[in-house]
Amino acid sequence: MSTHLVTSVTVQINAPAAFVWDVLVDYPSYPEWNPYTVAAETSLELGDRIDLTLPQVDGSDSTFINGEFIRIVDPPNHLRYDTGEEMQGIHAQRDQYITETGPDTCEYYTTDTFVGDLADLVMETTGDWVKAGFDSVATSLKARAEALFAAR
Questions:
Q1: What is the pLDDT of residues 105-145, one digit of tens each?
Q2: Per-residue pLDDT at 29
Q3: C-alpha distances in angstroms, 61 versus 39, 54, 106, 128, 140?
Q4: b/e map of 7-27 (b: 16 or more CB within 10 Å)?
Q5: What is the pLDDT of residues 66-93, one digit of tens each?
Q6: Those residues with Cβ within 8 angstroms of residue 67's Cβ, 6 or more apart along the chain or in another chain
Q7: Are 46 and 71 within 8 A, CB to CB?
Q8: Closest CA to 27 of 49, 64, 52, 8
Q9: d(C-alpha 26, C-alpha 20), whole Å
C-alpha cells in the first residue's frame, strides 16, 4: 500500500484568518473565484457529504462531481474532508490550513494525502493536475480574500 502527499504553495494573505475562513467556506461564491473547485455543496456538518465540482483532468470544458465527507471543521484554522469508503483501492484526505500570522494577516495552504493500492496510479495520472489545482486555489483564495477585505 502506497502513500502520497500533495501540498500546495503556501500563500501569505493580507486579511485576518477568520475573514479568510469565511471566504473559504462561502461555497455559493466558488464559481466567482475558484478555478479548481468550480462549485461545492455541503452543510459543513461533521460526517455530511461535500460535493465538489472539478474540471476534467484532460482540460476539456466539462466537469465532474467528487463526493467526499466532512471530518474536521475548526474555524478559522482547519478544514478536512475525505473520500470515506467511496473508492476501492484509494483513500484521499484533503486538509486546508489557515494560520494567523498577525491581527490582519494569515497564511494558507492545502494538502491531499492519497493512500491505497491505487495511490501510485492516481499520482501518475493526476498528481500534477492536483498540485496545479491546489496552487491555483491558494493563489486565488489570496486574491479573493485580499480584494474583499480591502473593499469592506
A1: 999 999 999 999 999 999 999 999 999 999 999 999 999 99
A2: 97
A3: 14, 10, 33, 18, 20
A4: ebeebebebbbebbbebbbeb
A5: 999 999 999 999 999 999 987 889 999 9
A6: 49, 50, 51, 52, 83, 86
A7: yes
A8: 52
A9: 10
